[in-house]
Design goal:
This protein has 111 residues and is an all-beta fold. The chain has strands spanning 2-6, 9-11, 17-24, 33-38, 45-50, 57-59, 67-72, 77-82, 91-97, 100-101, 105-109.
Length: 111
């Protein structure tokens, strides 16, 4: 199983980014997909997750109303749309399915 996160970068406060997580080795629509992040000097935190049936979503309070998780089962890919980004969103973002976690993508929010 491989998960490849991409789409990170440097963005101004208030800006947007869309992260992608390409999954191989499993059929993504059978699984809950999650996004986590880890900022320098901080513990890893769960950002969002989406159930296999797409009927249950979770968002951390810190991102609620600004981030949206989704998936495209035909592409076996999950997404995290991040709007109204803040400097405190700066972190390495990872996607995860069960015990599998891909390499992260760096998101930096700075002026």
């Amino acid at each position: 199983v491989q998960l490849q996160a991409s789409g990170g970068g440097l963005v101004l406060p208030g800006g947007s980014l869309r992260l992608s997580c390409a999954v191989s080795g499993i059929t993504l629509d059978y699984y809950t997909i999650g996004w986590l992040r880890q900022a320098p000097g901080k513990e890893r935190e769960g950002v969002s997750c989406l159930s296999s049936s797409d009927d249950i979503t979770y968002y951390a309070d810190s991102v609620k109303g600004r981030f949206t998780i989704s998936r495209d089962n035909a592409k076996n890919t999950a997404y995290l749309q991040m709007n109204s980004l803040k400097p405190e969103d700066t972190a390495v973002y990872y996607c995860a399915v069960q015990i599998y976690r891909g390499q992260g993508t760096q998101v930096t929010v700075s002026s």
